[in-house]
Design a protein that fits this description.
Layout lengths: L2 E2 L1 H11 L9 E7 L2 E10 L7 E5 L2 E5 L1 H6 L3 E7 L5 E7 L4
């Protein structure tokens, strides 16, 4: 299952803090049709019925079935540029 770094969890909490329903809001990662090579990330007020839910450190990520399969062994990280724009990066999970 997808894991979140501390940076990603904080970025998601920051993004969803001002949402209309912050207790259910998260980011949703979805495929473009059946194309597993293209995933999009957007804010979501709740998961879709078929979404897998990843909740870590108070942050929620909703994954459509294709994204859940593609990201099963991955980790989501986040960073910000000098202007404060947040970007997300998918990496391989590290084992400790």
């Amino acid at each position: 299952m997808l894991t979140l770094t501390e940076n990603a969890a904080q970025a998601i909490r920051d993004l969803t803090a001002s949402a209309p329903e912050p207790s259910q809001s998260g980011v949703r990662i979805a495929s473009q049709g059946q194309d597993t090579g293209t995933l999009t990330l957007s804010l979501a007020s709740q998961p879709e019925p078929t979404d897998a839910v990843v909740e870590e450190q108070g942050a929620r990520v909703y994954l459509d079935p294709v994204a859940a399969t593609v990201l099963d062994d991955k980790s989501l990280d986040a960073g910000a540029d000098e202007k404060g724009a947040v970007s997300f990066l998918v990496t391989d999970q590290t084992t400790t």
